[in-house]
Amino acid sequence: MTFPSLGSSAPVADGWSGLVGANATEEDVREAFNKIDTNISGSLDKTEISQAMRDLGYSERQIQKQVDYLPRENDLEMTFEQFYEMVCPGARPALNNANVMGMDVPYPNAEKIYDVPVIGNALYMTNDIIAQPCDNMLRSAHRSFKDYSDDAMEATFKRFDTEKTGHLPKKDIAKGLRNWGFTEAEIKWCLDNNPKEQISQLEFKDMVRGGPKFAPSRINYIPGVGTALDNNIQVAEDYSPEDLKERWDLVREKNGMPEKLDKFEVAEVLRSLGKSTFQVQEFIDFMQEEEIASQNSRRTWRASHGPT
Fold first, then answer.
1. Are residues 16 and 45 in the same domain?
2. What's the predicted TM-score (pTM) here?
3. Residue range 28-43: average pLDDT?
4. In this structure, are 179 and 104 located in the same domain?
5. What would the 3-class secondary structure string for 209-229 be?
6. Which residues in the chain belong to E strands, given as ranges?
7. Which of 1, 178, 23 is CA-nearest to residue 77?
8. Residue 118 CA to chain centroid, in angstroms?
9. What is the pLDDT of residues 167-204, one digit of tens each?
C-alpha cells in the first residue's frame, strides 16, 4: 500500500512536522519508528501512531487530522519503509502536472505556500481555528444518525472478532470504535478506563453506547416520592430474556464462571438491567436461597414482581 507523503497535502503536514526533525537521517527515523512500535511488530497501526504523537506533545486535533487522512482500511499496517517515506517527503514541488489530451501540462502547486515560513504557520493556525468547531459538529451529527441497535453493534463485533473467540483485544476494540466514528481521544479514554485486555460482545456494546443499555427510570429522581412512584407504577419491562442472559453471563464471567450467583452478584445483574436501588433490595430480600441459578432467578422475579 502506498501512503501519501506528508509534503503532499496541507491538512497533514503540520501534524507531523518536528516528529523526527527537519533534516532527519534514516537513523533518526528508525529511532522514532521503534518508539512508536510499542508491540515490536515491525509495523504501525493507527492506535500506535496516535499514542506516539500524543507522547510527543501533539494536540488531539493534530492526531485526529493525521488518522483521518490515512487510508480507511481497518487492518492498516505501516512498515518502516512506508513510515520513512511519509515523514521525510521533502519540500512540496513548485509545479504539478495535469494530463490534458495525453500531454502533461504543468501548473502552479497552490500547496507550496504552506512551505513558506510564518505564512504557512499562520495558515495552519487559521485552518485549525475554523475547522475544529466544524469538525466536532459534523462528527456529532454523523454519530446521531448511527443505528445503535443490538444487531448493528453485534455485526461490528463479529466483523473484528476474526478468531471467533467471543472477545476483542484492545487493538481490535480500537478498530471497532473507530468504525463507529469514535475519535482517537475517545478511543484512548475507552481503553484507559477498561482494565481488561479483552472484552466480550456485551461489554463492547456498552462501550459503544457509552454505558449500559438499561438505566433506572427517571421517576426515581423525583425528590421524596420518586422511589415509591416507580415501584408502584406498573411499566412493562424493557429487557428481554436474551438481555437477562447476557447480563447474567457477564457477571458470571467477572466472577470466575460460578454455576450460581450469590446475592451480591444478583444485585449487580439487576442494577445492570435498570432496576432501582429499592427494587434491587426488595428482590434480594425476597430471595430464599443465598445463591441462585439463572432460571431460578427468573422464576423468583416473576413470583415477586410479575412476569418478565
1. yes
2. 0.72
3. 81
4. no
5. HCCCCCCCCHHHHCCCCHHHH
6. 95-100, 103-108, 167-169, 198-200, 261-262, 291-292
7. 1
8. 36
9. 999 989 999 999 898 999 999 999 999 888 999 999 99
